[in-house]
Amino acid sequence: MVELLTYGVNAAEYMNEEQLLRDRNVPKWAERYVDWNYIKNNADLSSFDSIY
């Protein structure tokens, strides 16, 4: 489920992880299943300001 909610997400579009989770409607109980390494490694940093 978490993979579907975060599919195609660009981490560079969000100010922080909490905003990303809220905007993608990831429930609090599912936060621990988010693959942050994958999301951060696939962020398109050239198009947005990012904290990563």
Structural account:
There is one protein chain. The chain has one domain. The mean pLDDT is 89. Helix content is 33%, strand content 0%. It is mainly α. It is built from 3 helices and no strands.
Q: Radius of gyration in whole Å, from Cα?
A: 10 Å
> What is the count of DSSP helices, taking H or I runs of 4+ residues?
3
Helix content: 25-40%
Backbone structural class:
mainly alpha
Average of per-residue pLDDT values: 89
**Regions with little confidence, pLDDT below 50 for 5+ residues:** none
Tell me the fraction of residues in β-strands, as a range: under 5%
CA(first)-CA(last) distance: 24 Å
Instruction: Based on Cα principal axes, name the global outline.
Output: globular
Summary keywords:
52 residues; mainly alpha; 3 helices; 0% strand
Describe the structure concisely:
This protein is mainly α and 52 residues long. It has helices spanning 2-5, 17-23, 36-41.
Task: Please specify the SSE layout and strand pairing.
Elements: H1 2-5, H2 17-23, H3 36-41
